[in-house]
Amino acid sequence: MPVVGISTADLRRLLGREIGSIALAEAIDQLGCDLKELSEVVLYECPACGTTMDRLPREDAPVECDACGHRGAAPFPKTGGDERIRLDLVPARPDLFNAMGLARALRGFLGLARGLPAIRVPAGEVTVEVDPAVRGVRPFIACAEVTVPPLTREQLVLTFRLQEDLHWGVGRDRKKASIGVYDLEKHGTAIRYTTLPPDFRFTPLGMAGRSLSLAEILAEHPKGRAYAGLLAGFDRYPVLVDAAGRVLSMPPIINSEETKLAVGSRRLFVDVTGTDERAVLDSLALLVTDLLELGGEARSVGITEAGAKRLTPDLAPARYSFSPARAAALIGVPLTSEEVQDRLERMRLSVEPGEKAGEFTVLVPRYRVDVKHEVDLIEDVAIAHGYENLPSLLVPTMTVGEEHPRSVLGRKLRAVFTGLGFVEVVNFVLTNREDHYAKMRLPGEFSGATIRNPISPQQEIVRVHLLSGLMADFALNKTREMPQPIFEIGDVVTATAEGTIQRPHLAIGVMGPRADFATLRSLVDALAAEFAVPIDLRPLGDDPFGPVFLPGRAAALWLDGKPAGVLGEVHPAVVVGWGLDHPVVLAEVDLAALLPGGAG
C-alpha cells in the first residue's frame, strides 16, 4: 500500500491553529485514517522541476522525480527537514489524501467548523473543444479554472503531491483518470482536446530546451516509459493545445514545460482525462475542492463535444434520506436526533428536515466520493461520536471454538515437510493463462474461474492447480544453491454451473541435478506413512496433467483407493520454458483424502 506523508506544519497553517503533533496524529487516527507513524523526514529537491520530495532518514536520497520523471546521475540535493504524519493511502477516502482535504475534515472533527463547506462555481471564460477522434483513445474529459493567491513553494509541492496521489487512488495509476494542472497565464483560454500523429513535437516537463516527438516521449521520457502501455496500439495520441498551438499536455503521460505551474502562479487550469467517466468527474471534484482550501475560487469551463455544450465541474452536494433512529440502533448507542445531527455536522455534512417524520435529508459534499448509501453516513456518525466511546459488551451466547480440521492437517503437513528439509512457499491464488497453462504445456484451460475486471494481466484467473506457482518460485531462485526443495499448501478453485468449488491441495517440488522420480516417491511414501493412508501409483493414462511430465517418468497418485493427484519428472520443454537449467520434479495432492470424511 502506498504511503503519503503530510506535513504537520502545513496542517497547522491550513487549520489556523497551533495544535501539537501528538494531538494532530490522534485526531487523524480517530477520523478513520490508517495512521502509520509521526516521523521526521529529510527533504530533497528535483533539479529539473523544483518539486520537493521527502524521505525517512534511513532511506536513500531520491534519484527520480515523482512529478516530472527526471532521473539524475546523482542523488537529488538535500534542502532541509520536516515533520510528517505518514498514512497508508487507502482509496476509500481519497478526500483525506492530502493536507488540504485533511485539514478541512479536521476543522469539523475538532469543532473549528461545522456543516457543508460553501462552494460556488460561477461560469468562467475558458472553453474546451473536444475532437471526436479522442473517443477511441481517451474519451472522457472534465475541466475547471481555479484562481488562488500566488502559490508558495510549499503550496506548489502540495499541488503536485495531490495530483500524484489522486492518480493512484482514483485514477488507478492513470488508467482510469489522469490530471493536468497548468498556469493559465501561459496559454490561451480556447483549448482543444484532440489527437496528433507520433511525429508531433513539444517540450515535455522536466526536459527544458529539448523538443521531443510524441513517439520519442513514450520511448525516452521517464513518464513516457512508465505509462506507454496506456497508449499502446494507437497510431495517434491525445494532446491538449491552445489556439496558438501551445501544448498543455499529452495525457496521460506528461505536461509541457511551457505551461507548467511555478511559484507565484495564480490562475490555474485543470483538466482530467480518462477512460472511466466516473473516475474523471470524481478526480476533478476532489482536486478543485482541495485547491479551494488554499483560499481560491473556482469557475466552470465550457466543454463542447459533438455539438453539445456542458459545464464542469458540477460541485452540487448529493442528498440522502437518513433515519437518526436507524443510526442509533446500528451504532448501539441511544443517540437523540439532535445528537445525531451534531455528529453529522462535525463530519462537514449539512442536515435539513426530511420528507418523512423523524428523518433527515443529509447534504453530502461532492468531494465525499466514498458515500454511496445511508450506512456510509451512519459510519460518519460513529466516527464523530468516537469508537472509544462505544460500549463494550459481551456477546449474549458463549461457544467453545476448536481448530478447524484443515488447520490441523496443514500444521501436521508443515511439520512433516519442514522436518524433511523443505521450505514452505505461499503464492497468489490469482494468476494468468500464460504461466498457468501455456508454460506448463497444458493443452487447454480447465474449468477455472475468470476474473471479470482484473487489476492486472498477471492476475486474470483463479488457479486450478499449484504446480505453476512452484515453477515460478524456481524461476525466481534459479541462481541460488541447489537442490531446492519447496512445498505449498493452498486452495485451488474450479468453476461449475452452480458456482465454484474450493479445495485444499499440497504441492511438492524439488529442483537440482539429482532430482528424479525416486526422490518424489520417497516423499509420497513418507506422507502416506505419517497419515497411515494406503498409497497406490498408477499410470497417468489420459490425465490432463500428462503433458507437464516426462513420458514414462510420471504417475497418478491414489490415496485410500481414490484418485488424489499426480507426480513425476517435469518435461524438459516445461523446464526450458521457465528458463531453468536443472531437472525438476513435482507432485500435487488433493488433501480431501486426508481430511475427516474427505471434506475439502
Describe this structure in words.
It is a single chain. This protein has 600 residues and is α+β, with helices and mostly antiparallel strands. It folds into four domains: 3-109, Phenylalanyl-tRNA Synthetase, Chain B, domain 1, CATH 3.30.56; 123-312, 3-Layer(bba) Sandwich (Phenylalanyl-tRNA Synthetase, Chain B, domain 3); 318-389, 2-Layer Sandwich (Phenylalanyl-tRNA Synthetase, Chain B, domain 1), CATH 3.30.56.10; 405-598, BirA Bifunctional Protein, domain 2. A hairpin with a 4-residue loop joins β11 (237-242) and β12. α1 (8-15) crosses α3 (99-109), α8 (324-331) packs across α10 and α9 (337-346) crosses α10 (374-385). The two termini are 33 Å apart. The mean pLDDT is 90.
Q: CATH homologous superfamily name of the largest domain? A: Bira Bifunctional Protein, Domain 2
Number of strands: 28
Count of folded domains: 4
Radius of gyration: 30 Å
Name its key features.
about 600 residues, alpha+beta, Phenylalanyl-tRNA Synthetase, Chain B, domain 1, Phenylalanyl-tRNA Synthetase, Chain B, domain 3, 4 domains, ten-stranded mixed beta sheet, 15 helices, 28 strands
Summarize, please.
The model has no long low-confidence stretch (mean pLDDT 90). With 600 residues, this protein is α+β, with helices and mostly antiparallel strands.
Write the layout of secondary structure elements.
Elements: E1 3-7, H1 8-15, H2 21-30, E2 35-45, E3 52-55, E4 78-88, H3 99-109, E5 123-130, E6 140-147, H4 153-169, E7 177-183, E8 190-196, E9 201-202, E10 212-213, H5 214-220, H6 222-227, E11 237-242, E12 247-250, E13 254-255, E14 267-274, H7 277-292, E15 297-305, E16 308-312, E17 318-322, H8 324-331, H9 337-346, E18 350-353, E19 360-364, H10 374-385, H11 405-419, E20 423-424, E21 430-431, H12 433-438, E22 461-462, H13 467-476, E23 484-495, E24 500-511, H14 517-531, E25 535-538, E26 549-559, E27 562-570, H15 572-577, E28 584-590
Parallel strand pairs: 5-8, 5-15, 20-23
Antiparallel strand pairs: 1-4, 2-3, 2-4, 6-14, 6-15, 7-14, 8-11, 9-10, 11-12, 12-13, 15-16, 17-19, 18-19, 21-22, 23-24, 24-28, 25-26, 26-27, 27-28
Helix pairs in contact: 1-3, 4-7, 8-10, 9-10
